[in-house]
## 1
Amino acid sequence: MIPRYQRILFWVLAIASLLMALVLLRGCEQAREKLTRHQNETPLAAPVATASETVRLAMADDGDGSITLVDRDVALPEESTARARALLTRLIAEYSFKNSAHPLESGAAVDDVFLLDLPLQPPVAAGSKSPTQPPSAASDLAAGPHVPGGQLAVINLHGSFADHHPSGIEPETLTIDSILGTLYASFPRIEQVRFLVDGHPRDTLNGHADLTRTYTVVNTANKTAQPAAQESR
Amino acid sequence: MIPTRKFAAVLLATVAAAAAIAFSVHAQPQIQLPMPAPQPTAPTSTLNHNLILLDPAHGGPDPGTTFSDHTLEKDITLALAARLRTALTAAGFTVVATRDSDPSDPLTPDQRAETANRTHAVACIVLHATATGSGVHIYTSKLQPPSPDEDAYPSAYVPIPWESAQAASVDQSHRLAANLASALTKGNLPVLSGHAPLRPLDNLMCPAVAIELAPLLNPAGDPTSPADSDYQQRVGAALTSALQAWRDQAEPQAQSAQPSKMGAR
């Protein structure tokens, strides 16, 4: 005869096992849903075949601190923001190749690029014809365009890219100059650039280069870090 | 006697009333008087030709670059600053550093700039180290100097924007960088010069450069780490000799105001 307390213990353990199995199954389902949600590659728009075109990339070299324009054949989308993002993604990908002169870790670097017409207008409240006050900090900092139609590019970088970027004044400055030079060569309307990291302002790229300022897009090729002995001021 | 007392009382009251009226007239706010506007004067800020400011970057919870041998940039910059301080003091300079240890709560870049701007140093040296590149990197601000037709030091009392406080000194910073580069080259150290978007460089009102030590490539052997004491000693000696020459070249500046933090991000 099995004692009563052993029978009770058996049934309690059996029910506990069943409950744990159910929790485990539910957890697996949730994890699978989470993974499939992030890897959803369902096309939102019909793919459009685009021909390759020659673009100029401002490539950095850690050895002599120079920026050199090189030509690459790349298929880029037509839409401006997607085009800028694809171009910068290609630029950073070049640095992850073997024997790169400015080695960066491979992986996604640019999350998105937003192009805003200059001068920036303060946000207008719903139902109001006048802009809300006070103007945003961004509108304070971004000056008007030098030419009509000038734009501000807001580049949103991935946090993992910034965190794993080589730390130092030289590598961080070269990366920023490379981005500015590449935008200068392919996007004549972009006059200013601001950087975000994971959607938020960040003080530095990885401890050195200032990301809080608005950068002016200029031709950075062959202008940075010339050997001091040959530099004439 | 009574008339005399009355007379004295009346006299006393009259004197008191006159004094009260005089005091009240004297105490009128000055803004009610048509006074001419005070002429602003541009205070002349002379550089202290015997004072060098050293800013060993990073510190505390901010380690900076981590090298392959687990050396931290904040320790290298502190060691280099200590060596440089010794050499500069021996050369007759007074040295002020933004940190002499590794505090748990180091100064922010703005606080470092505030410290530097109060010293009126003849040169402000920001020290960094990196594992990328080779030799000694010398950087100055990316700010442009004021155009010739633009009065860098206007007669009116105009606050200087915090973000561009270095603009008025950037020409001197370029000359200082060229002098330092020349001295390092004479010391057989490879040098790379450029401009960098680096804080607090843009907020400094003194001739300012950032010195970044990178590994020293050796043709036959492993590169010399920036943590190497001999390497730091060579760099310190070259910088000291250049700063001794710079002491007599730096020009005093007239400054219209202290930089204003209005609009600082």
Note: Chain B has a mean pLDDT of 82.
## 2
Amino acid sequence: MPHKIPDYVAKYLLDRMIAQLPDEVLEVLVTLTPEQIEGLERVGRAFDEAGHERHLVTFSIH
Amino acid sequence: MTDAPVAELETSSTRIRRELAAAVGPLTAACTALVEHPRLRELWPEYLVLQHQIIRATVPLTRAALERTRALSDPLREPLAAYLEEHVDEELDHDEGLLDDLELLGLDRERVLGRMPPPSVAALVGGQYYWIHHHHPVAFLGYIALMEGYPPTAELIETLSARTGHPKESFRTFSQHAELDPGHRDHLDETLNALPLGEPEESAIVESARTTAVLAARAVSEIL
């Protein structure tokens, strides 16, 4: 069933460039208040500032 | 001593690899999403089935390219045919190895072979047949460049084994490619640099590689 995603949650997902999210995680995110989302954003920014980059992988076998 | 212009020092493989690096983004996104997926354990056998559907076509595709190359009347005929002959040997029985790995994960051969490959796989492989038969078999080198250009690393295999909880023996084909494909990639690069490639041939290889990146990414994304 589609979730009603609050604007501030949608903005958070967009800002963090999160395109694929498990339903279970989205169910939690949509229950958070704007203040709680702001807290998540601060944690994300702290990871960015600490230089913790997402580990991208590319692989193929032939 | 005067430095030669950079463009004169560039080889075909350097130019093609640079174009590949710019085009591989969708495949990187799909691979990363797979590895980070919370249901990776269940998705991994699906990914291997997908890889089998692709890899089972490698030797027939190479043989089709070889047959067309032998019918050419241009300077590429001899050196390209020599490479493709060797490439058949490099790729023989890899599909069988994947079936063995899948059996270790509980998927028997008949079940895997009985599944119809999705349109994305048909497009990925079928496009190569089209270019081989209706354009020029040299385009197939772009497919090989992409597919062999990004072999799994030992570190990645460790990560996959830990995250999926699947037995290490079921990563045998992946481990073999981690070991073999860097050498195969070097073999292709040496071939690209030795072939008498003009701009149209290089463009065909790059277009084929770009298309391979997009369609391989689509195929992986569809199982997520």
Note: Chain B touches chain A at residues 24, 27-28, 31-33, 35, 37-39, 51, 55, 58, 91, 94, 144, 146-153, 156, 173-174, 177, 181, 184, 216, 224 (CB under 8 Å).
## 3
Amino acid sequence: MIGYLREICSGTWSLFVGLGITIKYFFQPVVTVQYPREVLPMTPRFRGHIELVRDPETGGDKCIVCGMCQKTCPSNCIIVEGEKVEGAKKKALTRYTLDFTKCSLCGLCVEVCPADAITFSKDYNLAGLRREAYVFDLKKRLEERNG
Amino acid sequence: MSAFAQTQLKETFVINLGPQHPATHGVLRVKLVMDGEYIVEAEPVLGYIHRMHEKMGENRTWAQFMPNTGRMDYLHALAYNHGYVAVVERAAGIEVPERAEYIRVITAELNRISSHLLWFGAFVLDLGGFTPLLYAFDDREQILDLLESVTGSRLTYSYFRFGGVYNDIDENFVPGALAFIKRLRERLPMYHALVTKNIILRKRLEDIGFITPEMCRKYGATGPVARGSGIDFDVRRHEPYSIYPELNFDVPVYPKGDSMARYMVRMDEIEQSMRIVEQAIAKLPAGPVMAEKVPKILKPAKGDYYHAVETARGSFGIRVVSDGTNTPYRLKLRSPTFSNLSLFGEACQGMLLPDALALMGSLDLVIPEIDR
Amino acid sequence: MSVHPEVFRLLLFLVGFIAFAALNAAYLVWLERKEAGHIQRRIGPKEVGWFGLLQPLADGIKLMTKQLIVPAGVDPVLFRIAPILVMIPAIMGFVTIPFSETLVARNIDVGLLLVFAFASVNVLGLLLGAWGSRNKYAVISAARVVSQNVAYEIPMLVTVVTLVMVSGTMNLTKIVGQQMGGFWHWNFFNLTASPLMPVAFLIFFVCMLAETNRAPFDMAEAESELIAGAFTEYPGMGFGVFFMAEYANIVIGCSMATILFLGGWGCPFGLYPGLHWFLLKMYFLIFTVIWIRWTYPRTTFYGLLNLSWKILIPISFVNLLLTSAMLKVF
């Protein structure tokens, strides 16, 4: 009998405590960010899709077309092609294609590149209508960024 | 099995708890044979998200398998990363520098806290309380921001490498982690007052869903499911790896075996993980985060190697058979949730359907990990 | 031939009640979503209109433009009549409720009884609708709702009987009249009649939550046998009508709680009684109903019935005995 009454009293008290907690949070400011109108900055190490790094001396890319990134990618999403240019030590890059529909952002390509030619970008707002829009031509993107 | 369910077999019907779930379990199908309100038989049907990770392991080089480890149990991905790199380091004989070990443990324990916070929110959501989920996600967001500033990813981490970690922690990590721990310590009493002591929740969890220690041993259940039934087994304590022998923490064990015991085990584990992170941050040494001579193309010696780590769901074991080439010959992943789910068929006989759903929530299932 | 002014007045009230119920159904949804949002540290709807105030309009348009699918094999009469059967008692319940001293449709001497009589009928509509849907999950869920409603009618009515004993009348306007003049006259604080009066208010409130199938007692709507429960087969506006009836029932329940326990349209400090105080108190109680929904998890069906039969009914009977003893003695 006493246990029954005690359980009723403690149970009812726990219900009131719960109500007190939620009403306390009702009056506190919201913690959400209203996304399309307020945008949060990405951290420096955020992993977006990869980008070619601009070489400050030549203004182009730093890629030596060794093909290590293509070999090490677990998902086979990188295609690198280059050609030998007379009078230059390294091969010149003609095509660098990233199939972002398969990329898992593991970072093995960035890590293994001996020339530090690729890095993660900060792009996350990638919405599109066609699958082909996600096969990025990184060389063309570098030229567009150069101006 | 309740006496009621034993005397039946008059009129049972089959209900399908279909692959699409209103909760965050994943794609799990359970065929329930029910007699009115009581469950007579339950048979989980798996395989809806089988992605053949083990076969992929045979076709990729050792380094190329890293992203797969983060995608099995995406809620505690760093522990799976840890298990894989630990077994390959054991196979290839690579020594990991101390700073890297400490960073591994700190990030993996933070990931464990975030996994338990998500479990807590989703469990109470299954039971009908919508609000604690959002409070838990508020805290979890802090962890995700911390780990994003270190690793670059928020959920499916591919951060560990053979011989260390990918990059060092940045300067905001240690103050951020300590601030987070202080904040979560202040919020945990709020969770206990709002949810744990709530009479409605207690009525739904106490004395419901008993799992006996014999059942755990029979099906090989580990982790909070076994510790909630009184079995004192934690891989970090009984098969220690990395720097866990140097850290001081308790392993919560509750002998009762009902859903409330499993709930309390996980809530206490959050507190213990915070203790581990504090101690590890205090002892964090300076130094390199990557071993010196890790060959670019790894070819471990021929043999059969096994390593187990303690994840949020139990003991994750990984066995590699190496034949000396640059791809594994066989990669076997022992999923803790698979064993935990196997006892569902026996444990829920004779239970009411809402109680069985509460039991399933307390097992902390992540189906992509079962199906791999 | 001239129309009797009383008929005219009643028609006006009827239209007013339908409009009030409809407006409440629409904007209580808005209030619920905003309140749930702020409890969960986020804002609720904000895009459609200023502060999301046009959101109920958008939801209404969506519901109305959905195709009214009548599944094959349903009972043609029951399926179509059930939403109406649920809506009519919800509107009729407003007839005797006094919103202020002069604003009452019909000031009947048994007004209290009439409200509860109408409230009991809406369960019938739900059961008929579920039965007519020819869906076994709907029938199971509706059977649960019926037993839930029956179980919670008893403590509610016992508490109301206690109150009638204290007030000596069933006329709602007179009951409020006895509580005018400041909050210490309210029945909630009327401890000379019975020391368990606040407990009686709590019991009434909990029973009101259970009668209207509101969380934490909402097995009929959410999670019942994994599907939508009693309304599974009702598309678009059919569901919308059930929904409106539920919110109208919440409004009636909160109005009754205000009238019986919190002094109706009286000011807490005895100054300017009027319609505004009634609305304020009623909306405060509705805020509390929503607040409770978003704080607690759901009870199981057996827990619900145990709560009623093993806890609420004994306590309400004890209250009844205590009140009658105190009335006899003092």
Note: The mean pLDDT of chain B is 88.
## 4
Amino acid sequence: MTLIERTDDVNSCWRDLADVLKSGISRVLLYGPSGTGKTYAALHHGVGSVPAERLVCTEDLTSGEITGTWMPVGENRWEWREGPAIRAWRGSGGVGGRLVVDEVDRASGDALSTLLAMTDSPESARWRNPETSEWVRPGPQFSVVMTTNVDDLEDIAPSLRDRFPVAICIDRPHCSALASLSDDLRAPALAGSLGPASRRVSLRSFYAFDQLRRHLGTSRAAQLVFGEDAALSVLDALAIAAIA
Amino acid sequence: MRALVHPELVTGREDGFVSAAWTVKPGSTRRGEASCNLTERILEIPLGNDATSRVVRAHELMHARVSPHVIEHYGALDDVSPRALECAEELRINTLIARLDFDVTLLHDGSEKNGARRVAESGDWSEALCFLMAVLSTGGEKEYLAGIRQVEPSWMSGLRAVRKRALALMNALASPTLAATRLNDEQLPSGYANATIVLARLLTQSMNARPPTTPEELRSFRRSLEPGGRRAPTGKFAPLRFDENVTMSLRPRGEGLRRARPSTTGSTMRYPSRLLSDERKRAFARRSTFHGGIVIVDQSGSMDIDEASLSMLLRRAPDALVVGYSHRPGDNGLTPNVWIMADRGSVATTIRSGNIGNGVDGAVLAWALRRRRNTEPIVWVTDGQVTDSHDHPDDGLTLQCAELVRRHRIRLVKELGGAGRALSYSRTTSRSQWREFGRLGRKLLETQAF
């Protein structure tokens, strides 16, 4: 069985995402273990020539960091700087672009309310520029992809969740993300994110291990990347995987 | 602190097994307390940081890497003992992890010697063979063999022969071949098919064989382990397996067979000698119509029967029960070895041919005796050869059959054509006729002498 045949099975989540975006669904929630390439896909997949706007949520995120804020531009002069959400609404020439909201489960309070407004349906969403009093609406090609590492969607505010009718669990990296990894590590790297959090080995770890082992040898590279506790177990599993 | 294990990273299978998350449960290094459930992806393993726990984990992870994961991959193996398969697979797994430099001598839990003693004390040669495969090359092997030696030293030569063959079989295959999971033409993982199944077949036939004790038996046993070698003697009959697919149809009844029977009254004194020899003085003859009897037909080898002979028999004895038998040497119960050709008025629509071997002679005779009505005659169509389930002639089994023949006055004939006549005679086969029946005849003469 070739790698391509295998990818038909293991890449179903990525196929789902491609199909959903291709169908014109403009609000998608991607969730699953970290290190599988959710953010990368959200930033690059189905995005035109204009780069996607990215918003990383934290507990301290404010609504100003979402929609915009007054910035001092000289003595007693202030200018309104639009935030990533409004920039994405406008996109290139007002047609709308892509907004990527990372770690959405961490947003709370004021920021969460603003996110609700920004991700509302195209018919309801609108925002007034405090500087020009212009009413801004999302452009026709505006899309928003939220990502989160939660395993259970219950951890996301129901009102926010409701704005995202399609939620896709991304539980493994995209095959194309493995291209520059050594042959023997590709299949384990694809499966490394499948287990519970305590056992997950991210794609980034595999890349680091692959690079380090060329210089430091397998054992030391494993210790440095996976840690003392997991190094032996990971190496045992890799050796057994490579038996045939 | 618990050790980590990464079953998800054990990838590389080519048999359609889809990678997914595993459930890891704490087990132990004791035998039977670690397992790998590929269907539900449950790994039960010791989570200690010691070297033994690590090797046990590697053993279970190797199962996750190479063992069949769907029942269909075992499905074509009805001719192989499940226990033999299980233990042969253990040897394959241990061989593979040893080649990855895991120290398999750590695989022992101290129960091997006592376990071996119990197996030997119960006379379970099959389990002795299978379990040897499970501990072969591990730290438990020496203790296990010591336990067997204490109770059944006569088994040692046979066990050593199987051990040698099993190791040779594994060593002949490189790791990529031994561990291959690509499905072959029979839809079996090829490493499993080339090593585990081959060994399990050898084990299954050796399990059925008699443990070799004499040099000659050992030579025969060793030969049986070689590719294409003849199976070793088992010293026992195979269990009867009736053909359930025989279609019977009612046969027009003939007149049956008239024959004379001794009687205390009558018009002609046919047996004057009985006035002296028979305490009931049945010197007269009474004609009676005879309809039944049991005919047992050995259909092994070249002993074909034709429909004309069967029809002729059934004209004379329309109510006869006629059974054919022949066992496929080494068959594990898959192939029917006995079939009804006529059953008290109905007759099989087709007559099936034999399976080369005898294998069930004594078992069929015993079955026929249980089906016997009153003192109706039993006729055995045989060439006098009695063989075990691997089709080896066997003195003990021949004697067993000879005793049944003598005790129950079973009549012997060489061909089915003579069965009708034999049914009609009131006499059993004479001593002079016994000589025509090979080993069975000789055994009859020997036993008669005592």
Note: DSSP finds 17 helices and twelve strands in chain B.
